[in-house]
Amino acid sequence: MSGLTFDIAHLLAGSLVLISFMMLYQDRLFALINVFALHAVVLALSVAWQAYIQDAHHLYITAGIALVFKAIVIPVGLHRIIQRLGIHRDIETAVGIGPTMLAGIGLVTLSMVLMLRVTPEADPLAREDLAFALSIILLGLLVMVTRRNAVSQVVGFMSLENGLVLAATGAKGMPLVVEISVAFSILIAFIVIGVFLFRIRERFDSVDVGALDDYRGERR
Amino acid sequence: MISTVALLLCGPAALLGTAILAAAASRHAAATRLVYGAALVISAALLVTVAGHLAGNPGEVSAITLPLGLPWTGARFRLDGLSAFFLVVVNLGGAITSLYGLGYGRHESAPHRVLPFYPAFLAGMNLVVLANDAFSFLLSWEFMSLASWALVMAHHRDEANRRAGTIYLVMASFGTMALLLAFGLLAGPAGTYAFDAMRTAHPDRFAAGAVLVLMLLGAGSKAGLVPLHAWLPLAHPAAPSHVSALMSGIMTKVAIYGFIRVVFDLLGEPAWWSGIAVLLIGGVTAVLGILHALMEKDLKRLLAYSTIENIGVIFASLGLALAFKANAMPSAAALAFTAALFHVLNHSFFKSLLFFGAGAVLSATGERDMEKLGGLIHRLPVTSFVFLVGCVSISALPPFNGFASEWLVFQAILLSPELPQWGLKVIVPAVGGMLALSAALAAACFVKAFGITFLGRARSAAVERAHEVDRWSLAAMAVLATFCLLAGILPGFVIDGLSPVTLSLIGDRMPVQMAEPWLSIVPIAESRSSYNGLLVFVFIAISASLAAFFIHRFASHALRRGIAWGCGFADAVPAAQYTAVSFAQPIRRVFGGFAFRARETVEMPAPGALEPARLKVDMHDVTWEIFYQPITGAIDFATERLNHLQFLTIRRYLTLVFLYLVILLLVLALWP
Amino acid sequence: MTGFSFDAVAAILFIPAGAAAVLATMPNYRMTAAVNVAASLLTLLAALSLFVTERPAPGQYLLIDDLNIVFIVLNTFVGFTTSVFSASYIGHELETGRLTAPNLRFYHAMYQIMMFGMNLAFVSNNIGLMWVAVELATLTTVLMVGIYRTHEALEAAWKYFILGSVGIALALFGTILVYMAAQPVVGEGTNAMVWSVLIEKAAHFDPALLSVAFIFLLLGYGTKVGLAPLHAWLPDAHAEGPTPISAVLSGLLLNVALYAVLRFKLLLAANPQAIGPGPLMVTMGLTSLIFAAFMLYRRRDIKRLFAYSSIEHMGIIVFAFGMGGPLANFAGLLHMVMHSLTKSAIFFAVGHIAQVKGTQKISEIRGLTESHPGLGWALVIGVVAIAGLPPLGIFMSEFLVVSSTFARHPWLAIPLVFGLLIAFGALLLRLTGVAFGEPRGGMAPVEASYVPMYSHLALVFAAGIYLPAPLVAWFQHVAGILG
Amino acid sequence: MAVIFDLAVQGAQMLSVLLLAPLLIGFVRKVKARLVRRQGPSVIQPYRDLVRLMRKEVVLADNASWLFRVTPYLIFAATWVAAALVPTFATGLEFSWAADLIVIVALLGSARFFQALAGMDVGTSFGGIGASREVMIASLAEPAMLLIVFSLALVAGATQLSTVAAFMGSPQVGLRVSLGMSLIALVMVAVAENARIPVDNPATHLELTMVHEAMILEYSGRHLAMIELASFLKLLLYMSLISCVFLPWGLESAATGPRSLAIGAAAYLGKLAVLAILLAVFETAVAKMRVFRVPDFLGAALMLALLGTLLLFVSRSL
Predict the structure, then answer these.
(1) In which compartments does the protein localize (chain A) (predicted)?
(2) What is the interface pTM, i.e. ipTM, of the complex?
(3) Which residue, of B113, B312, B532, D125, has the greatest Cβ tally within 10 A?
């Protein structure tokens, strides 16, 4: 495989990690969602690029899904939810931005270390990709656990899932990728609708996940 | 020709069948009579079979393997000298208890909670004694616990009984776990769970030590060794009286069987220090048990505590046997071991008898609290007489059986200076002193038990209404009383009967006793020590009747009834009598200080003030406070802390997952 | 012949799928319940036919071997009994108005889809397919947990959903990693996901990649197994969903996830350089066991109590498999089967109890053996069984686990025994409170079919006394594979 | 022939203890009286008392049970048998092997057991006081006694009294610390067991201080006679025990013929006289202690006995 294609794939994957860091940095919902949209766009590009270099045409579908669904539909939906709920104020971050960034850096190094232990026989592109994907996943989780707000948790989860898609597409000739990405989109739709439903049914006065938890069935 | 053990297995099978039928028809009127009748017949049949086996060829071993239980081991059963002896104990007890139950069971308020489990309990005990592989053993063992637990919970509406049942089953499964670990060690990683395989494979010294400790924990918790006895005085009295008799008189013996089977049979040659451990625990158990019994005022709990004392005596002489065996003194070991088994038999007799008596009192008056009894000797003449026999026997007074076995124990102790190890030289006499002390205290305890319950004047109206109990119960008690006397005046028969067991486990036996003149027993040599219960009995009988004869021949026969001397006050109220607590007061002042941290506080009113003076005694169950409260406290603490994890937010739970993931990945990253 | 036997596998999959489609369109709830039972019965029969017919050769997607045949039969059997139970349970729910007819239609359809998902997970020979199937089963149960639409139910479902989704993601990543590890050896395409192929070639895979993969899989599927600290969804999901679902969750879904973990453990066991799965599983198992044991004490809700006991037993099972060796693996398999049967039986009893007493609060249920002997004694037997007392099946497995562990690694056996005893104490305390004492709560007689729970208990009892030879042979073979 | 002779000797022994017991008491009382410069009753007063009691009618409390009436005979029988088994003027009697030292202790124990029960039978508080205190004392005295038996048995290698006595008579005994301790312990136990000063006062009838007397407070007439006789026998028993174990001079096997028997009898009477005088002197010299000092007194005895036994376990020559 020529160096150029390799580098481009790298560039895209790396920038995905970078964008994940940007997400960590955001402390406003709108900004977060926008950054996520960007994340999705870049993902779509990298998937498309993979489709091109592996000439695996079904991957274009995945790319399309990523572009349409994640980069457009979901962000718009989330925007509307936030409008409805009127919570376009700050995200209540559970942990300060600084520590979060540090943790993020630690996670990235961790994933690098782990993946570099992999013997080089494995396809180098796949190997590097995996390292990036793993860091994106961990960063996504980090977003989920450092944010109090359900919307931002959804965003975190989606970025995590982007990492998955990146890994899946990076794996040469992996079957079921499209199906999986579809399945995941449905899953995310469920989650978003769930957040939405809870609001509409007036069941919880905010989508602060804490409010979902005040009943434990055994509250004394 | 069907083998003996196969024949014997039909017994438990039949008992289980009875249990199932009882579960089906327990509410039927005739169920009580049928179930106890069936149990009686089956136990008697088993007894006859075993007796035939012993009479025929006691040394012979018959084994069988059924395609049940653990797949690659199968359910193995085996009949040898030891199991034969304990089968006698179990089924003799079972038969007589069933006889008693025929009468006592009629008063049962909730027969449907007793009848199904009673035969199951008997079956469980029989199976434990017959089992020949670890799995069948533990299965039967725990089944036995379970059945007895159900019986303890028979009167479940009483909060105390529920608590007793819970503590009992928890302790039981603790014991089972200990046994499980012991068997795990004996079986080894390959998992050879058959006893025959364990016999041949000798564990190394540490493993052997661990097994001994685990057996002390496992079998000891069931037998009621201090400090594992906490459940016993709660659970035994909670059950219906005939079941209490089974639990105290028989089940504890099954526990002892387990201990003997593993430590004397499977474990091979013991280490000398194992003797020390068992001796010490036995001695302490004996003293503490009987002291607790002295402080009790609930008749059945008193009996339960005295069970603990007797278990202590048995374990002490087992420890002695271990020490002798470890030092290759087979004849001495045989003496100590015989003493232990003899006491097992005796205790099963008089403890069942006493519990039957307590049950009779309970059904006649509805009272277990001695402070509300008294004067029953006038109301229940027969019961009081047999109960008296039981008291004399358990107090180790000649010529009854309790004395015979304790005499053997003392003879064994007197052989121990030959032991080489210094540790034993120091421990053994101390334990001897403890046993002597516990024997004396036992006498005091049963003076109290009989005196407060049956003598004096009635302390409550319930006693006035009491009537003698039914024939079945009386018959059962009379049989046991006869056994107590017979085993006391003819100990030679029992000792010779035990010789196959000692031969198989110790490799030696006591000299043949039946050959001795005048049926006296001679452990070592006549010049050294000998005892002839029969002759002592005859002498006492003759001299007493001589005295009576002369009196009635020459002295006056005049007799006048009058009121008792009340220090000038005419007929004091019954409440003025000594109560159980006040009777125990002098002994409490002597021993209570260290055993119960007992404190007495007296509030004297000012001179001339009219309010009464108050004497307040507060006592502590020291073992409970030392061993059990910390555990419960720790569990409370832990649960309280951990319980917060039930009340976290989703984000926190996610954080847990996240952290766990990161930790695992770090581990992996640092993996060499 | 092979043709027919393939049909058997197909039947196991298509009967539930078809039934789901049918049920989704049926109005009458009695009829739907009946159809539900019938479909489950047919599936069970199909599964049983696997015993008699010879097994199909492993294809690219489907596989029948000693390991999963037991799971399938167990799964379909419990599925069938649960459907019978739910038929007698749902009626009451409808009367009390907790559920409506449309709910029920949805419920029954979902039930069949869930069965389909679980069966698919078992028979699938393809790790990707297995993943999809497990997730399908999970999502359907999420929907059923939330079916009561109450605050608590939705909240439980939401929690289950979020945590589950994260688990899904992690498991998927693990699966991808396994593919990546296999791809250089096996070559691109579906083959690199076919389990029977992987297990042959596993020795040559990249160990580091496999290790990372296993960690993700362990966490991903472990979330569904309910291992502490990934367990958070489990208690609430059990407590707030309909009782048949609680029974299925504890009895089956946990097994499905466990099955997945086992498959991957096999894969790792086949690759010597990769990280040993044993220590990880032993640690997780012990943690779950002891944690759950302590959590049992403060429970106020009876269903939540038994949910925690499920966590505890999953801990034991994972521990046993982590220990490895013929005895421990055998014990683990046996324990898993026994636990499914017993726990579902307990939930059957609990369901009826909650209905007659009108509450799930332990403190408001007393003296069941007096007021409702049938239920009360069933509960007693069930708890006695789950607590590992003889003569019931779990005793045998615990006997093997504890004794073999103590013989090999004494220091591991101590915490194990400790946890078991702590849990036993808690269960016994609660049982004493619920089954004995002055009766309290509703006295209305139960209109319930005792058949499901007592048949389960009978099976457990029989297994405690006698295990049939073929079963033993399978278990031993599988235990051999599990290493 | 020999058997008949042996039987005769045995019978003579039983009779002699029966006849000697009251005399011993009378003698002790006489000496005590003399010591305080009183004339004192005649030595045969106890016989007279017994006869008088025999003649008197029995006054039974209303609710006294059959046990109350049987007990005196049991107590008497047990004590008599026990006393008959202790070698007095000869060892190796016909039935001496029927019971050893432990049995003798136990026989006295059973006598006490029934006495305590009888004390509680009527249901007055005095009986209760007596019984509870008696068992308290016994619970310490009996183990002490058993430990003494242990050390004797360890020295002589037997619990058989005849053997022990024969051994103590033989020269190989020598002076031993352990034996000294057990002698002191034995004396203390004997004092307690026979309800002598300082443990109990046989002469008192002040309710709060009595132990033995409180138990038999309700007895009268022939029953009382039996019990009194039994207590006389008990004192004799302990004295003969001490004499045959610690002063075994002149004690020969019964098989050796009449002459040695005569010597033995003479020696025996001498020993009894000495012991009786010692007892009297002791009793006049000390004051009665409070009931709850008794445990300390007996505890000391117990400790001494235990120490003696321990020493023997450590080395047979101590």
Answers:
(1) Cell membrane
(2) 0.90
(3) B312
